Amino acid sequence: MRGSSYTDEVACPDVGREATSLLFVCTANQCRSVMAEAIARRRFSGAPFVFASAGLIEGGRPVPPNGVLVGEEYGFDLSGHVSRRADIRRLSGWDVILTMTRRHTRELVAADPELWPRVFTLPQFVRWLDEHPPRRHVLLREWIEQEGAERPRSEMIGSHPDDDIADPVDGPPEAWRGLVAELTQDIDRIARRVIPGLGAATTSPSPRPQ
Questions:
Q1: Three-state secondary structure along 68-117?
Q2: Which of 7, 26, 120, 155 could connect to 125 by a Cys-Cys bridge, CB 3.0–4.6 Å?
Q3: In the beta sheet, which residues pair with residue 119?
Q4: Residues 70, 180 contacting (CB under 8 angstroms)
Q5: Please, what are the averages of pLDDT over each run of 10 residues along the chain (210 residues)?
């Protein structure tokens, strides 16, 4: 993946109803969300899904050197990525928004309460899909808005190790490799739930030999 250039804030997606749009959100769009976007683009290649990523603070930042290094190990070119901020009052067009922590979810829902049915932390969404398998021939957004509105809002409260994905921003390469493994596992489980007939990933997330 070649990182996208910095152009204003991320707001509504520029796609029609023929594709499902999914936005990953973290604090700065330097680490977790941009890596999740890269992994999702690869896993969903050829499927009618559109992905983007954004942060909650001002953009204009590159991926840290260790992130670029580990990204290269897995075949992702993050060297040209420049972070972008989410326009948190103009995200209603996204079908699904996946955050990296409960705090991110709280900020988005506080800015626009109508987003609640479609905002999850990434681990929450994985568990929720396991418990509420989508029906066939139903638009994912419509299904989530119907089913997701009944979720307990306590899912946003505080922090929890099962829901919050650690930020490797100042960490060593090992922390970034752990992030890639965690994100790959979660995104693979999502893909197998929302793409009919899709099997397990053909390869496990392992870096190329050095």
A1: HHHHHHCCCECCCCECCEECCCCCCCCCEEEECCHHHHHHHHHHCHHHHH
A2: 120
A3: 97
A4: yes
A5: 56 81 97 98 94 96 98 97 95 96 96 94 94 78 83 85 95 98 97 78 52
